[in-house]
């Protein structure tokens, strides 16, 4: 059975919206896009590369997949992240997309997220990784389908923006399995479901 690991950049006040670019996700008038820039260092690069070095497939929500198609899908720069994401099978959970032909190795999972991901989870031993896709993560977490989190905790608060968990989340206990602090004060913490 596959495990699902979520990797999420998050602020101290739980904001996960638009860490990469100013235009990444401006829903709700969010003006702090790109807040994660300036924190990248060799430690973070090594930790993120370690996460991507394990064989497995990706699981993405519609919005994140559409953003990644533009940001990573056409990249041929030799960047190991681009290489990994372009080669990986990308399962896209969506009720509205008609097809996912715009990015190689993408497979559309139509219908209810919990049902389709539950079926996908038992199909194979290839683990699944989710990067971003906060709405999908909240849904899968509530259904007990997330096995591990890698939280990239940035030393800042924003006060506004979509948070990792908005509203109630079911009680779930996790065990810290690894943590590293970067030279810029970011804590990368890996948690496994108990």
Automatic annotation (TrEMBL):
Give the matching InterPro entries. DHFR-like_dom_sf (IPR024072), RibDG_C (IPR002734)
| GO molecular-function terms, A-Z | 5-amino-6-(5-phosphoribosylamino)uracil reductase activity
Domain (Bacterial bifunctional deaminase-reductase C-terminal) ranges: 3-187
Which Gene Ontology biological process is one annotated for this entry? Answer: riboflavin biosynthetic process
Descriptive protein name: Deaminase
> What lineage does the source organism belong to?
Bacteria, Bacillati, Actinomycetota, Actinomycetes, Micromonosporales
